[in-house]
Amino acid sequence: MPLTPEQQAQIDEQRQSPRQTLRTVADGMEQHLFTAYPVLDHGFVRVIDYMGDDAAICQAARVSYGRGTKSVQNDEGLIRYLMRHWHSTPFEMCEVKLHVKLPVFVARQWIRHRTANINEYSGRYSVMDREFYIPAEDKLAAQSSQNHQGRGEVLQGEEAQRVLNLLREDAMRSYDNYESMLSQDGQQGLARELARMNLPTNIYTQWYWKVDLHNLLHFLRLRADSHAQYEIRAYADVICDIVKDWVPAAFGAFRDYRMDAVSLSAQAAAVLKRRLAGDTVTQEHSGMGAREWREFQDVWG
Amino acid sequence: MPLTPEQQAQIDEQRQSPRQTLRTVADGMEQHLFTAYPVLDHGFVRVIDYMGDDAAICQAARVSYGRGTKSVQNDEGLIRYLMRHWHSTPFEMCEVKLHVKLPVFVARQWIRHRTANINEYSGRYSVMDREFYIPAEDKLAAQSSQNHQGRGEVLQGEEAQRVLNLLREDAMRSYDNYESMLSQDGQQGLARELARMNLPTNIYTQWYWKVDLHNLLHFLRLRADSHAQYEIRAYADVICDIVKDWVPAAFGAFRDYRMDAVSLSAQAAAVLKRRLAGDTVTQEHSGMGAREWREFQDVWG
Amino acid sequence: MPLTPEQQAQIDEQRQSPRQTLRTVADGMEQHLFTAYPVLDHGFVRVIDYMGDDAAICQAARVSYGRGTKSVQNDEGLIRYLMRHWHSTPFEMCEVKLHVKLPVFVARQWIRHRTANINEYSGRYSVMDREFYIPAEDKLAAQSSQNHQGRGEVLQGEEAQRVLNLLREDAMRSYDNYESMLSQDGQQGLARELARMNLPTNIYTQWYWKVDLHNLLHFLRLRADSHAQYEIRAYADVICDIVKDWVPAAFGAFRDYRMDAVSLSAQAAAVLKRRLAGDTVTQEHSGMGAREWREFQDVWG
Amino acid sequence: MPLTPEQQAQIDEQRQSPRQTLRTVADGMEQHLFTAYPVLDHGFVRVIDYMGDDAAICQAARVSYGRGTKSVQNDEGLIRYLMRHWHSTPFEMCEVKLHVKLPVFVARQWIRHRTANINEYSGRYSVMDREFYIPAEDKLAAQSSQNHQGRGEVLQGEEAQRVLNLLREDAMRSYDNYESMLSQDGQQGLARELARMNLPTNIYTQWYWKVDLHNLLHFLRLRADSHAQYEIRAYADVICDIVKDWVPAAFGAFRDYRMDAVSLSAQAAAVLKRRLAGDTVTQEHSGMGAREWREFQDVWG
User: Fold this and answer.
1) Which of B33, B94, C5, C209 could form a disulfide with B213 if both were Cys (CB 3.0 to 4.6 A apart)?
2) Same domain as D38, residue D173
3) Residues in A touching B17 (Cβ below 8 Å)
4) CATH (domain of A34)
5) pTM (2 decimals)?
6) Does residue A139 lie within any of the structural domains?
7) Cβ C66–D90 below 8 Å, yes or no?
């Protein structure tokens, strides 16, 4: 359970006092506000605030004086057109602020996305909590034998058990020693900013993360992808579900033109055209390298 | 008057349908929402949307589970501390979206602030309106004789009249010819993306501009400054009034620690210390160049 | 001719004093350094400085201690892999600084690319030169009848002549009046920062523009595209020729996987798969809207 | 010693083959190129590449056709003027690329500076090295009793020894277990991307970091400051020494107007003016809070 009763009470309180506003309200998003959706064993994602909705994308694209929306159908058509033709600026007109609790090694991947605002819990200022990510057994994967940067099959039996034990023991011992170094009981106590260096990167941290919709979709494209590390993908998947309710038309366009889209190189497009004309094309005559040819065949046979 | 009756009706309509939300509501900002505040002769600034308030700055700084605010006084102290010590990220947790109508030459200065989202009215796609900035008589300044990049005294009498006539006539003639080149009456009509090049940069354009509070304050620091060109300062001043009502504590801290603050170089600080100790210091012994010394004396005598 | 003899002499001088460096040197780029390549009627692009080459991309991707390159073939394979899989950060490790002279209306499109460094010639501080873009006759296009944001056929005969005359006359008159307002001959002279507003946006400005290779390629992808306005495409095309000599492997990968690549939506990919299986698919059963279907047919028949 | 003989040989090789270039060469920087300057116990900073020098700042500020420099004295005056008046864009025209080896907890602070390009050694793809930061005894500080986010006195005797032992033992054990989980000797071997989560954040990582001079100086202002954590300050100090040789005029201006400058709030400036006029001002009448007053007194007595 990621939340203490006190934290849950604080969150619940936020859901109990609706207020009036003249701003755009996205009903699909209001229902998600503040709810802490669990991710991994101790993490969560919750929406703190948002700005805009599908209509706000059209309103900005049209530089409107009023709400700027026409029919829902018309708006969806515009949004799909904008996405298809890489007109990204109208999507930047929506913004979302999330509170995320996540292991440090996930945070280190996440923060590579630079066009976002971040406030992280400070281990210089505060004591870290004793919470560590320990993978579920079905997520304890071996090193891939084909891919330097990937996972192979799930570990079995004794090996799996040994790994879980090591991860748990090292986490607990590191934290015990962290506490013991900090302790001011009969000693001065090491500075927090130093003691934290003893903690492994499966410890949980948390941050407020604020990002515009265009950059969020770019994040999701890379991190909800099958090549992303499972642990960050787990967060991306939860965020996808939220975004789908927030801006359904934009998310639909994103899915069709980005997530589920296929990018064909000049060479791959030429091969497909020859195939459509009835030719059989082999790698030698494809203009593609061996690896690219394999990737091509994975999609097109 | 910057707005047509139809535009005013669209704006008014937006103010007439408050909705419920669970998000943070800043009462001081709700009152400004959508109202088009006039700037210069045909321009305006109006708030389309916002995210956060003073409390949201503290909430992010504390990475809180709930509203994250303590007493108003305590929050204000934290905000002032953050501003004083250049902890800028919590201020990035507030966001505002403006609709601005402004002359093109002002837009060219404004867009130099890169950390913002923009959708501008497109002169490729649409026909520009016949609206030009013509300075008020008391803003028609001569070139400064001391400063390459500045204004001197206000032009008088005949010269002022001649300038105003030239600006008006050239604007009208350029626009007449713009229309005549576009016309498809008995001719093909020049492409919009080409015809617009005939228009001078005092023509008005408009855009949606979205920015976080930290970057907005940085914009205001540079553009509400006495060295900024009057025409952009006019916009910055109006935005200052809005921000003051939106996040009063943050704006107060900004005023005290940025806008009205004085930055002393190492040399200037040393001179002040010697003066406080009773010494008289001349430029020769100040470590400052002639120009810097003049700037120093302007503040400290 | 875009350059005065004095400017040409200054440029030539820079090419005459090679120096020794321990840094990476890209021979293909050294030959372009400082040469002002003409664009449009008075514009140019010239390379002021650069950092890195193809090998530097691999060196950063491998976080190498030495030069970080293996065989040229191996490096090219890595670069193509990085481009294909959207690993963009190694491409950010190359940087280029250009001096560009361009019409203001082109500059206004260009500056929308925010991840770059810019110093523009200041019309507040200095007097603008009397140089205006007047399109060549074969570039004087009518408004497209199908596309709000596009060009149709080239204007003919009298209409073309009338347009050229209007553009030339308005430019000259605006500049005459600009000079006359600035003049301090028997009058105070209007401030430069005000007088410039009378100038149309086909006047030339110039700037130093510095950008990393990843963002430069993104710029080229959008601005060397057939949907871009011809006048900015003219600059993008010249820059493409320079980049091709600077980082040939990266540019080749960019051409194959971005410029000449085809992006298939989920729906379009499904249609192609059905076609490859021998089915005939009509728009009704494609899952695509009418406009998207047209775009699809333009490529795939 | 941070480098293996093989790494040192690779670095040395880079210093032995000077080449000719037409670009700007900064002699003060050439001498630093590639040299790995040690930081902390296993870290280093080394310059991989650079673009520009002091003259390049002036060249961009003047949008010059040639080298753009006048006398050295004149250039220094311009640079000081630009720095004093927050004209930051010309400083963005210089760029530097560093190879840095640093503990993960330092990397986590460093990466908060978002306007930079980064390629980090990948623990998904490669096996991490067994190198951990263990503080020198005189850097083993207690938690500050006044400041949540600071260090107090250096730990003494037994406590210091106990801390060092814990840090060393936990690092070694975590690494042993990391290796044992990775091992494919008689078992499948855990995926690298998972095993690395067992490693504490004092393990060393490394990256290529590329940044423009303006953003580098901003980094140095915050990280070479006395409030920065010692471990990142150690890197900032080494970089300061390099920048001083690279762009001496810009660094001098930075030191005088930023690093060693004093920022006075509106209230503090008013107090100083009253003091200069002979008044004695107490906190009650200063308009400052207790904490700000203490900070003021630390500087001004």
Assistant:
1) B94
2) no
3) 22
4) 3.30.1360.170
5) 0.96
6) no
7) no
- From A86, A265, A289, residue closest to C222, measured CB to CB: A86
Helix, strand or coil for residue A282? coil
Neighbours of D186 (CB within 10 A): 7
Q: What pLDDT is stored for residue D46 in this prediction? A: 96
Which one of C80, C86, C267 has the shortest CB-CB distance to A222? C86
Quickly state the pLDDT bin for A14 (edges 50, 70, 90): confident
Residues A97 and A230 in one domain: yes
Give the C-alpha separation, C33 to C234, whole Å.
Answer: 19
| Host domain of residue C296 | 266-300
Q: Are strands B37-39 and B43-51 parallel, antiparallel or unpaired?
A: antiparallel
Q: Are residues D10 and D67 in the same domain?
A: yes
Closest alpha carbon within chain B to A16:
B22
Q: Are residues C100 and C42 in the same domain?
A: yes
Q: Are both C90 and C146 inside the same structural domain?
A: no
Q: Of the listed D19, D223, D233, D294, which one is catalytic?
A: D223
Q: For the CA atoms of D58, D60, D62, D65, what is the dihedral angle to 10 degrees?
A: 110
Residues of D (143-172) whose Cβ lies below 8 Å from A = 143-144, 148-153, 155-156, 159, 162-163, 166-167, 170-171
CA distance C192 to C178: 9
SS3 readout for chain C: CCCCHHHHHHHHHHCCCCEEECCCCCHHHHCCECCCEEECCCEEEEEEEEECCHHHHHHHHCCCCCCCCCCHHHHHHHHHHHHHCCCCHHHHHCEEEEEEEEEHHHHHHHCCCCCCEEEECCCCCCCCCCCECCCCHHHCEEECCCCCCCEEEECCHHHHHHHHHHHHHHHHHHHHHHHHHHCCCCCCCECHHHHHHHCECCEEEEEEEEEEHHHHHHHHHHHCCCCCCHHHHHHHHHHHHHHHHHCHHHHHHHHHHHHCCEEECHHHHHHHHHHHCCCCCCHHHCCCCHHHHHHHHHHHC
3-state helix, strand, coil in chain D (%, to 5): 50, 15, 35
* DSSP secondary structure code for residue B122 in this structure: P
Q: List, for residues C3-50, the tens digit of each pLDDT value.
A: 899 998 888 888 888 999 999 999 999 999 999 999 999 999 999 999
Number of domains chain D is built from: 3
Contacts of D124 in chain A (CB under 8 A): 149, 229
* CA gap D150, D71 in Å, rounded: 46
C-alpha span between C160 and C157 (Å, rounded)? 5
